[in-house]
TrEMBL record, chain A:
Record InterPro entries: PRTase-like, PRTase_dom
EC number assigned by the record: 2.4.2.9
Name of a matching Pfam family: UPRTase
Name this polypeptide is given: uracil phosphoribosyltransferase
Organism expressing this protein natively: Tieghemostelium lacteum
Automatic annotation (TrEMBL), chain B:
InterPro entries: P-loop_NTPase (IPR027417), PRK/URK (IPR006083), PRTase-like (IPR029057), PRTase_dom (IPR000836), Uridine_kinase-like (IPR000764)
Family: Belongs to the uridine kinase family.
GO MF terms, alphabetically ordered: ATP binding; cytidine kinase activity; uridine kinase activity
Protein name: Uridine-cytidine kinase
Keywords: ATP-binding, Kinase, Nucleotide-binding, Transferase
Pfam families xref list: PRK (PF00485), UPRTase (PF14681)
Organism encoding this protein: Tieghemostelium lacteum (Slime mold)
E.C. number(s) listed in UniProt: 2.7.1.48
Length: 210, 462
């Protein structure tokens, strides 16, 4: 699928995933290595945004034909796990505005409910990096995108960044929002009965925060 | 002969250059050319050497003076009555070891002799091998074992009267000695030593140069001879360079790895290269680009397979780093890359070397502080720019001298000039070079074009 960008796999990336997927990894290391991976994912996500040509003069007096960002951006994290990705985002985009969306699953209906939303007022004119580390069923993130669209964000201006995605999740999300780029670290096997990604990473928010 | 020198003997040039490009096109290491220069006191040995070095215009020359190899004077000896012109005053064992180590391309430590206290100073000069090694001194051709290590033996044959006149002038005018004491020393030690030990060395010389440095014809011929000897040994610097420049950007050797030029990478470069970028932004984007570069560089380290269990009790077939990793920061530039390194590799040991180039673009090692490397160590060398490649070469050389295998070295640089990086790869084909940008040209002043200017200056603001 051409709307999915998977981080180019190599030993280094694989090594980072091995640490954070290991159930015996302590929180300290989990946070450190997740942050490292997230930073790489954010760089990859930024690369999906539009650029324009820009020529600069170097201190040697020579011209360099380069590029620069063509648009205003912002981040939106899905509370709580998505907030773990803000450090990585801020590490590469110092002054970026970050919006937040809280979506909770209704225990009886299993349907996601919007609990809280706070977005930059001019979000409609921005490219949005949507942050949520796990793409399992895709229910939550689709709900979050609904909110963004309601706030005037164009579908093609959204890049969804996550660490691990399930094939079911990608399929579901892409069927709802085919124009949104998904940037992911690795695509796993499938979901188990409790809708956890297999082999996955467990509950990302729990492992990162509590 | 320099026994009357009241100051610490620092007046001789010592080139502490890195090991030279002493590889032929097949990558075989070549022996350097060793030249011995002998002659009486004040015969003009140093001037001849300096003229030859200037004429040769070879990048890597080491000039060693026998004065550095004086043995410690016994404590009870009176400097006024001590014979500094006698063969027993010199440490021939150390000289022989030093020259033979240099011939094998090994690093050596040259003692420093203090003529005030007549003892060796605690600090030694570190010298890395060279294309040409010159040992000059009154008795440099005295020992057979030392002579056997020499490829060219030279005797400077300056008239005795001229030498005495020079010595008088020098010791009285420059060293504040009295006429009587100079003549006394000359008659008691200098003259007998010359007749008994120095002059007999003349018969071992391949070339005798009358009148010392005034003899321009002889110096010219000597230079020619050294040049032809170097060529015999495969010193084909110009030819190598020509072949290297014919390598096009398309067939860059495989161990030179340029990070994929995505818009993202290009945008960061655009900021770093822009002359109007402020120091704050320069540091920020340098850190960002370098951390991507280091992540990329680390993919070249050895990994082993590792299976772990995830919190949902499933196996994940992953990888784990399978070696000990160190870093070597080539100061000052390398320190611009240390923060992003620490951000991804928390406890890594970082060695430091300070290499500065002189006005002739010859790199000199000013400082080195290294962790304990082993043949199993893998080392990330940090230097944000590779311009001519001379200091990069020296940094690699230092690692090799400390037992790090060539294939375990990963050289990480932000911007490299094509020529410099090809040269580095040519000299050390197994070193992996990871760079963010490859620029085409090098200016006359040695700047990469278009480049980013002086990287450290921009990073540190001075």
């Amino acid at each position: 699928m051409d709307n999915v960008v998977v981080l180019k796999s190599n030993n280094q990336i694989k090594g980072l995933f091995t640490i954070i997927r290991n159930k015996d990894t302590r929180r300290e290391d989990f946070v450190f290595y997740s942050d490292r991976l997230i930073r790489l994912l954010v760089e990859e996500g930024l690369n999906c945004l539009p650029f324009e040509e820009k020529t600069v003069i170097t201190p040697t007096g020579a011209e360099y034909k380069g590029v620069s960002f063509a648009s205003k951006i912002c981040g939106v994290s899905i509370i709580r796990a998505g907030e773990s990705m803000e450090i990585g985002l801020r590490a590469v985009c110092k002054h970026i505005k970050i919006g937040k969306i809280l979506i909770q699953r209704d225990e009886s209906t299993k349907l996601p409910h919007l609990m809280y939303v706070k977005l930059p007022h001019d979000i409609a004119n921005r490219q949005v990096l949507l942050l949520d580390p796990m793409l399992a069923t895709g229910g939550t993130v689709v709900k979050a995108v609904d909110v963004l669209i309601e706030n005037g964000v164009k579908e093609e201006n959204i890049v969804f960044i996550n660490l691990i995605a399930s094939p079911e999740g990608i399929k579901f999300f892409s069927s709802k929002y085919p124009k949104i780029k998904i940037v992911t670290g690795e695509i796993d096997g499938s979901l188990n009965e409790e809708k956890y990604i297999i082999p996955g990473i467990g509950d990302f928010g729990n492992r990162y925060f509590t | 002969m320099a026994s009357t020198n009241n100051s610490i003997n620092n007046n001789k040039i010592i080139y502490t250059s890195g090991r030279p490009p002493w590889y032929d096109l097949s990558g075989k290491l070549k022996n350097p050319l060793v030249i011995g220069v002998c002659g009486g006191s004040a015969s003009g040995k140093t001037s001849v050497c300096e003229r030859v070095i200037a004429n040769l215009n070879v990048r890597w020359v080491v000039l060693l003076s026998m004065d550095s190899f004086y043995l410690q004077m016994p404590h009870d000896a009176d400097p006024g009555k001590y014979n500094f012109d006698h063969p027993n005053s010199f440490d021939y064992d150390l000289m022989i070891k030093t020259i033979s180590d240099l011939r094998q391309g090994k690093r050596v430590h040259i003692p420093k002799y203090c003529f005030k206290t007549h003892s060796r100073l605690p600090h030694m000069d570190t010298v890395y091998g060279a294309d040409v090694i010159i040992l000059e001194g009154i008795l440099s051709l005295y020992s057979k074992e030392l002579r056997d290590l020499m490829d060219i033996k030279i005797f400077i044959d300056t008239d005795d009267d001229v030498r005495l006149a020079r010595r008088l002038k020098r010791d009285i005018a420059e060293r504040g000695r009295t006429l009587e004491s100079v003549i006394l020393q000359y008659n008691k030690f200098v003259k007998p030593s010359f007749d008994d030990y120095i002059l007999p060395c003349k018969k071992y010389a391949d070339i005798v140069i009358p009148r010392g440095s005034d003899n321009i014809v002889a110096i010219e011929l000597l230079t020619q001879h050294i040049r032809s000897k170097l060529e015999e040994r495969g010193f084909e610097q110009d030819k190598v360079m020509k072949e290297l420049t014919e390598i096009s950007r398309k067939d860059i050797p495989k161990n030179i790895h340029i990070i994929e030029q995505t818009n993202q990478i290009k945008a960061m470069q655009t900021i770093l290269r822009n002359q109007n970028t402020t120091i704050g932004d320069f540091v920020f984007y340098s850190d960002r680009l370098v951390s991507l570069l280091l992540e990329e560089a680390m993919t070249f380290l050895p990994f082993r397979d590792q299976v772990v269990t995830t919190p949902v009790d499933h196996d994940y077939h992953g990888k784990a780093l399978d070696c000990s990793v160190f870093a070597l920061s080539v100061l000052r530039g390398g320190s611009c890359m240390e923060r992003p390194l620490r951000a991804i590799s928390k406890g890594i040991q970082i060695g430091k070397v300070l290499i500065q180039s002189d006005e002739n673009k010859k790199p000199h090692l000013y400082y080195e502080r290294l962790p304990d490397f082993s043949p199993e160590s893998h080392v990330l060398v940090l230097d944000p720019t590779i311009a001519s490649g001379a200091s990069s070469e020296m940094a690699v050389r230092i690692l090799l001298d400390h037992g790090v295998p060539e294939k375990n070295i990963i050289f990480v640089s932000v911007i490299a000039a094509l020529r410099g990086v090809l040269l580095l790869n040519y000299r050390f084909p197994e070193v992996k070079i990871v760079i963010a940008a490859l620029d085409n040209e090098l200016s006359d002043k040695g700047y990469i074009l278009p480049g980013a200017g002086n990287y450290s200056n921009r990073f540190f603001g001075n």
